[in-house]
């Protein structure tokens, strides 16, 4: 018996197979802020133009899909959790009562 299992079964739960609703809300908010700034701020120099477009660029970078992760936001969250959580793991398995003292 051969079983056919899709490689990525969660892709069907995503919008357009790429985005979660939170990703689209984040990206839409960045675009909306950039559009409002484009209407309000006079674009007199290149630096001002880059600063006005930066919310859309940053949120676009965060929702950029990458392999082995969902997007850049997921990578940043995973790295943050790895760096801020405990790095030394104490064994407390099924045989913890057999060990008299846990070595530190």
Compact summary:
The chain has 104 residues and is mainly α.
Helix-strand layout with pairing:
Elements: H1 21-40, H2 46-62, H3 72-84
Helix pairs in contact: 1-2
List keywords for this structure.
flat, 104 residues, mainly alpha
Write up what this structure looks like:
The protein is an all-alpha fold and 104 residues long. The protein is built from 3 helices and no strands. The chain is flat, with a radius of gyration of 23 Å.
Helix content: 40-55%
Query: What's the tally of helices?
Result: 3
What is the count of β-strands?
0
Uncertain runs: none
Largest sheet: none
Strand content: under 5%
Return the average pLDDT rounded to an integer: 82
Distance between the termini: 50 Å
Q: What is the overall silhouette?
A: flat
Return the string of H and E elements: HHH
Structural class category: mainly alpha
Q: Output the radius of gyration.
A: 23 Å
Oligomer kind:
single chain
């Amino acid at each position: 018996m051969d079983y056919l299992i899709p490689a990525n079964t969660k892709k069907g739960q995503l919008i357009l197979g790429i985005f979660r609703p939170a990703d689209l809300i984040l990206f839409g908010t960045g675009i909306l802020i950039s559009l409002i700034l484009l209407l309000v701020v006079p674009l007199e120099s290149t630096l001002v133009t880059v600063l006005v477009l930066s919310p859309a660029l940053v949120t676009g970078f965060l929702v950029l899909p990458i392999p082995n992760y969902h997007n850049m936001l997921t990578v940043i969250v995973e790295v943050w959790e790895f760096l801020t959580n405990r790095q030394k793991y104490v064994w407390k398995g099924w045989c913890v009562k057999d060990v008299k003292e846990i070595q530190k």
